[in-house]
Structures are given as structure tokens and as C-alpha cells.
Design a protein that fits this description.
Blueprint: E1 3-6, H1 10-22, E2 26-32, H2 39-43, E3 46-51, H3 62-71, E4 76-78, H4 88-96, E5 100-101, H5 106-112, H6 115-122, H7 140-150, E6 154-158, E7 167-170, H8 176-191, E8 196-200, E9 206-214, E10 220-232, E11 235-241, H9 248-263, E12 269-277, E13 283-289, H10 296-303, H11 307-315, E14 332-339, E15 341-342, E16 348-349, E17 356-358, E18 365-369, E19 384-392, H12 395-408, E20 410-412, H13 418-426, H14 428-431, H15 439-443, H16 447-467, H17 485-489
Parallel strand pairs: 1-2, 1-4, 2-3, 4-5
Antiparallel strand pairs: 6-7, 6-8, 9-10, 9-12, 10-11, 11-14, 12-13, 14-19, 15-16, 17-20, 18-19
Helix pairs in contact: 4-5, 12-13
Amino acid sequence: MKKILVANRGEIALRVMRTCKSMGISTVAIYSEADRNSPHVRFADEAVCVGPAASKESYLKIDTILEVCKNLKVDGVHPGYGFLSENATFAKACQDNGIIFIGPSVEAIETMGSKLAAKQAVSHFDVPLVPGTDQPITDIEEAKKLATAIGFPILIKASAGGGGKGMRNVNNLDEFEEQMKLAVSEATSAFGDGSVFIEKFVTSPRHIEIQILGDSHGNIVYLFERDCSVQRRHQKVVEEAPSAVLSPALRKKMGEAAVQVAKSVNYLGAGTVEFIVNANLDFYFLEMNTRLQVEHPVTEMITGIDLVKEQINIAKGEKISFSQEDLKINGHAIELRVYAEDPSNNFLPDIGKLEVYQIPTGEGVRVDDGFDEGMDIPIYYDPMIAKLIAHGTNRQDAIEKLKNAIHNYKIEGVKTTLPFGTFVLNHAAFTTGNFDTKFVENYFHPNEINKDELKLAALIASKLQKENSANFVVFEETENVQNSNWRKSRIE
């Protein structure tokens, strides 16, 4: 493979291109009009504008992307994550045009793209499943009977898609009908598929996922776990590897279950098997993501494996470059997703110019980003600026390194999740490992960030007072919530 087009933008496009460059593979970037000056465009050997800012007119235009591939004689396409990464139609179109899709088969994408189909596929293997229905539910009265039989609380979940869309928690029969209608409506709007199913709601759940790799020679390995339980709106913000609560025996059991899931669809390339784990550390299969995950760097940090390099080599027909026995956990890694969001205002996206943008450096610190100082945060895409990762000899070391890296990450012009990261890392529930997916709901309140800022301001004021009593400033706490600039300016 001599030339790869990266069908994505921002940090993931840049991250893939860096590995390509290290392998001596030339790269092609695609970009929208809004991303014309983005770092991934400048880094690539060739770059082509594929349309206006809106993703449906640029990054999601399959015919346009394929035309670029053919015109520039591209050998393979790396989809990154998001956009077309789990689009079976795109994968097949690449295949039909003699272009290598750096990912799993069309069949694997289709099967695992439906939560119901995925459950059916793995049901023949030794993989624990959450009690629930294995067929789409449409009749509300019948659904009520099934929900009652399963036992409340239950989850109504969209079969297609992810990101928490089309998901409703139902605590009793009285609220079931309304919540089911909302779930169907949201699923239809988000995915064009209103199919929903019912699962038992797992109390005190932890979100733990297993990274796997599969090749065309029948080899499948697991690269340990990531704990992704710190979430807002069912989307991850802080991820770590390994988990603070898994024993070696449980890690092995979950890893082997993940391999079975991959075997159920003859999986090829990098993928992630997601499990939900209850308070008793019983685990159940949730879904499989047939792509590279946003949080893959923490796995790379503890294993020393370049997952993108493995993806490319597997797509070329090569064997995985190591065996299961070769893998060892080296230390601990934690990732904070640095979003242009205001944690003190319900994590609403923010927009503006990166007036100051200086990334932290140091031993064990990694920043995957796609912005430069002076750039605007586009309103058209996910508001993630970067991923900040710290690797330490143990969990406490990683926590301290990440706290220090957050402190040294200078961003001005937009609100970010950096202060939230500090809050998480200092909270007893996180430091002790005694937390679940309700961390934000249980412990974080919008004024927590303001409190921390006020404490800092008070310390500064106190210092100034001592140095010059004539210049003392009093800071008063406010509970005013500002409107999001992103929401004001968002173009649908």
C-alpha cells in the first residue's frame, strides 16, 4: 500500500497520517471549506476540498470521496472514527472500486451496526448478554408485558446508532408508553430507523470495553480493557487503561469473551467490544464498535502497540505482529477529551477563536489534536479540540501527571472541559476507583467549576492584598448561567 486517503478531519486524520508517514506511505487529506487551513490538510502529501462546511455536503459524500480516490490513484482508505467509519455502504463502495477499506468486512459492519443483530450473532457463543428482547418492539401493549416480565427498571434502546440517542431509562409501567414513543421518535430522527428493544437496566453500571485486533489468518487478540465510565449525556469524557476494578482473572475472562464476539463475525482489523459491568462485577455484552475508538491512545500507551499501524498491515493481508502471550500491561494511562464545552453550563458546546493555544509536554504526556493557535472552532462538527493523555508507572502516577498536564494546557478564547478534568481527578470517587457511569450525575454540579475558579481567584487576591493592601479585590460567587455561543450560532 503506497497511498492512503484519510476520510476524516481534525485530530484523528492527523494521527492516522503520522503513522502512515512513519511507514513510508503517502497520504491524501480531504477537507471541507471550513477546514481549509486545518493542520491535517497541511500535513498531508495531497489535499482535496470535497465540499461546503456541512458534513453531509463534504465528509459524508461517498461519491465525491471515491472520485478523489480514483483521480489520485489511492490504494486504501482509512475512515478514522465517526463520519463514514461504520458505514457499510461506503465500505462496499470502496471494495467495488478496487480500493482497500482499512476496516472490517461489510458483513461485520452491518451485523454489529445493529444492536439486535449483534446480540443474535453472539448468542451462539459463550458471551453473557443482558436479559431483554432479541427482536424489535413495535406494539406498545406487548412491549409493556415484556418490560414487566423482565422487571423494572429497564432501558429502551435504539437498535441502530449510538451516542445515547434513542435510549430511555424507564422505572415503572406508568411512564413506559411515553418513554417508548420518545425513544422511537429520536431513533427515527437520528438514524432513520425507529427499531427499539428492551433490556434490563443494570444498576451501578461501569462501562468497560476491550480492544481487539483480528487478521485474515484467523488470529484474534485482545489488548486489555479501557474503563470509560466517566460520561456526560451517555458520551465519554475520561477514559483509562487498565480499569481500577478488574482482577487479572476477570480481565482474562472479559478478554476471551471479546474474542468470541469478534469470532462471531470473522472480524478483521481493529474493533472494540463494549461491556457493561454491575456492582458485583458481573459483565454483559453491550455492543461492538467496528472502528478505531477515540480513546485508543490509552491502550497504545500501556501496550506499546501502534493500533493504526496494525490496522494498515492487517488490511494489506499481513498477520498481527504479536501474539496474545506477548502482551503485557505497562503502567497506567488516562485520557481526558478536551472539548470546546462549558462544564458550568451543562456541557453546552462553545465557539470562538483559540486566542491562546499551548499544549503541555513532558514525560508520559501525549496530545492528539487538530488545531493551531488562532484557529476558530467550527460550529459544524463535534466540538472536541484534542485528547490529552498521561501515562504513569501506576494509576496514581498517571493521575498526577494528567493533573499537571491540564494545568500546563493553555487555552483561551473558548470554554473547555479542562477544569472538569481537574475536578474528576481530584474527586475521591475517582481516585478510589469507586465510581460508575453516574459519576457526573452523582457528583458534578455546574457551580463546581465556578467554585474552583473562585478559589483560585481568592488565592490570587489574597496574595495581591499582602503585596499591596491598597489593591484588594473582592470576588463574589454567581449562579448565573450563560447561553452557549455554539447554540446561538449552530446551523442545522
